[in-house]
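Running this now, will post back.
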Amino acid sequence: MDRLAAISMLWDVFIDAQRGADDLVVTICRGFSPDYLSWSEFKSLGSFATSAVVAAGWSCRKLDQIAESVREGLFLEEELDQLREQARHKRNRVYIRRPSD
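Update: finished.
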């Protein structure tokens, strides 16, 4: 638990999620260094984790559903790809200002 406490004190950015053996594995960036945690570990960080996921344009509820499908052996890569694409679209919509704005 010390590792998780140390991570939560730093400014971390949620980057991506991938299928792991029995859970999703999330990638966060700590400064310039990537770190990898299971979705369950990451969620145990509490509101920090939720805030990081939402700030990155992802959906905690959908990540929960996909993590459950991994644990049940029903994982479909297309679902995670679609969620990743939706997050990318949300980030682009928020961060890119058009001349008409």
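Residues 2-95 form one domain. More later if anyone needs it.
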